[in-house]
Structure formats: C-alpha cells, structure tokens
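Re: Re: ligand-bound prediction request (bumping)

Still looking for help on this. To restate: I need the protein modeled with MP5 bound, output as structure tokens. Inputs repeated here so nobody has to scroll up.
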Amino acid sequence: MRIKKALTIAGSDSGGGAGIQADLKTFQELGVFGMSALTAVTAQNTLGVQAVFPMTAEAVKRQIQSVGDDMGADAVKTGMLFNAEIIQTVAAQIKLYNWRSVVVDPVMIAKGGASLLQEEAISALKSDLLPVALVVTPNIPEAEVLTQLSIQTADDKKQAARKLAELGTKYVLIKGGHDEHTDEAVDLLYDGSEFHFFSSKRIQTKHTHGTGCTFSAAIAAGLAQGGSVYDAVSEAKRFIQAAVEDQLLIGGGHGPTNHWAYGRRKGDDAQ
Ligand SMILES: Nc1ncnc2c1ncn2[C@@H]1O[C@H](COP(=O)(O)OP(=O)(O)O)[C@@H](O)[C@H]1O
Ligand SMILES: Cc1ncc(COP(=O)(O)O)c(N)n1
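Reply:
Sorry for the wait, this slipped through. Here it is.
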C-alpha cells in the first residue's frame, strides 16, 4: 500500500489545539501520513499564548530538506511562519522540491490576540510565498491586512479574493469564521474565474481554537490524496463543522476542536 504523505510547516502549540499538533491530528484522521517542520515553539494553552520561541531559518530549512530528500510530500501546508527570513526560506524550499499542492494559511494573530507573524514579514508573505501557493486560506482580518481592503459584505469578500489572486495564488479561500453577525459560517472559494460558497450552520461556541489550522490541514490532506481543490475544500468544511460541533470542553478558555468527530460520524453512518 502506498500511503499519501503531507508535510506541515508550522509552529507548535503546547496546548495541542492549533499549529503542528492540530495539523498532524487532522492528517492522521484523514488517512494521510503526517510529517512536520517546526518554525517556532509556542508556550500556549486555551487561555492564550504565554511565549514564542522562533526556530532559526536554517533549522526550518534542514527539517524541510530531511523530508524532501528522502520521503517527499504529496501536499504541503504552511501555518505560523513568524518572520520574513523563515518565509523566504520556506518559499525557496517549496520551489526547490517543485511542490505544487501547497496550502498557505497566512497565520497572523492567535485568537487571544498574540502576534504569530512579525509585521515586517507581511510583504515577504505576499511577494515570496503567495506566488508558490496553490490555495491561500486567510480569515477575514488576514484578508484585510493582505489586501488593505475593509471586508464587510459578500461583495467585499469577492473583491478581496480577486486582489489576492493577483499576487499569484491560484485559489483563494476567504474563511467566514469571524463573520459573527450571521447564523452561518460561510467560506468563499475563488478559482480565478468563478466564486463558490461553502456554507454551514454557525455553532455558538467559544471553543474554536485551531479551526483555521485544522481546516487548512484537512484541505492539504484532500489534495495529498489526489482530490481537486473544490473536493478537498468540501470535505475539509465537513471535517471542521463536525470538529466544532462535537465540543471537547478542554481548558478554561478557548478550547480545541474535536479531531475525532468527523471520522466517528463517518463510522456511524457506515454501520
Ligand atoms: N462557530 C463556528 N461554527 C461553524 N464553523 C466555524 C465556526 N467558526 C469557524 N468556523 C469554520 O472554521 C474554519 C476556519 O475559519 P476561521 O475561524 O475564520 O479561521 P481562523 O481560525 O484562521 O481564524 C472555516 O471553515 C469557518 O467557516
Ligand atoms: C502555533 C500556532 N499556530 C497557529 C495558531 C492559530 O490558531 P487558529 O487556527 O485558532 O487561528 C496558533 N494559535 N498557534
């Protein structure tokens, strides 16, 4: 059996709900072999980020090379990259290995407000990383920073998606988790010509720590298995919906989502 493999290039969340930990749990649940290159260690829990310890760009590069030279990757996702040097290194390695199924989650700020990307790194994200991404998955505040547009309406989202696509990413997915005045969680996918909306019932919960990481990892898992971007996003949306719905109630703050929920539901349906 030839198992498909996915590489996450992201930060560690000691609390296990976001970052590398969320990505690897998601890969595992979706039947993909998970590998990782750590960009930073965060001391973090459901209450917030207590400390950030970035890796050197060299350490990030060496981890990617260890994976790339031996094992290869059917898909790659990036999460917290922290600074411009790490972003440039990651982009150069993606090019070197000619990785095409690349999902970039432009992580900027943790839900509790801590900065996971230095401000001066935003231009490197735009100029170096977005051109090598197949899919970029900003939430609304991240899309606003990247486009310098204010996003209030569905039309604003479309305009932002068009502007992001001009930076060289083939597919732009603007996530609607932060659109809290609606009853639905609506994500918009732009493929360079058409717009597709993925909508689900918004769950009233504060336990959404790691939703973005989990969602982008699920997309990468779908791509690793050879699915189209549309199909990978559709399944990722079902995965995150189940994970937010079946609350785990861990920790005293914004708790993690449930990475088992989707697989358990599928198992129940099969019986
Ligand atoms: N309360 C919620 N109910 C249902 N889905 C949600 C909820 N919050 C976020 N999502 C979904 O989780 C995914 C991640 O979105 P978002 O929270 O916007 O990203 P991020 O974690 O990067 O801020 C999206 O598919 C979004 O629609
Ligand atoms: C190491 C790390 N990476 C990413 C996030 C963002 O999490 P979220 O998906 O909730 O925006 C985080 N809190 N910590």
